[in-house]
Amino acid sequence: MNGHWYPWGQSGKFKPAWRHIHHIFNEEGANEYATWVWNPIVNEGRVHYATIANHYYPGDEFVDWIGLNGFNFGPVSGNHLWNSFKITYSLGYSIMRKKHPNKPILIAEVGCYPNRKRKPQWFREMFSDLKERFRGIKALCYFDMDWSDQPDGFDSRIDSSPEALQAFKESIADPYFLGKVPYKKI
Question: C or N: which end of the chain has fewer Cβ atoms within 10 Å?
Answer without folding.
Answer: C
